[in-house]
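thought: fold this chain, then report.
action: predict
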Amino acid sequence: MLIDVTTYHLEITDPSDLRPKPNPLQDLEIKRVGQPSPEFNRFLYTAVGGDWYWIDRLSWTYRQWHEWVDRPQFQTWVAYVSGSPAGYFELDGQPERSVEITSFGLLPQYIGRGLGGHFLSVALEKGWQTGASRVWLHTCSLDHPTALSNYRARGMRVFLEETAPQDLPGTTPGPWPGAQRI
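observation:
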């Protein structure tokens, strides 16, 4: 199915521009993944992005996933609620002291609980802690309806917007082939 998709590239270039949101949950822990794991990152990618057409990495081989996660400038951070993964973000250090948030999101059962704004605040803070002078990401019109407003509410601003047709499957892939939501 061919549809027009708008991609928004957002950045924040000064830590004082961050408008953090407080933690809404008592049993929330956010931890950095210490040992890179292709299996874990692929699980997070499909669990978080399966309903939003995150399909770019679905065809990656184990080797490609391993090369992605096993780089010194790369970090994976996971939010846990009562010990269960609730979401994740990836930070990818780039030239000129720039850090890209390459993935960010929550598992479906944690959306709408007030966690997204706080979790993004933490992602941006962790980006700054790497020594970055710029933290950026991109999202698109296929993402959760409140994603763009969350990024803007935290102080990020759009620096590039582009629309292009994309050939997409008729439905999102979900967390795995054949998965049916309850």
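thought: worth noting. Helices lie at 38-49, 62-69, 115-129, 147-153.
final: tokens above.
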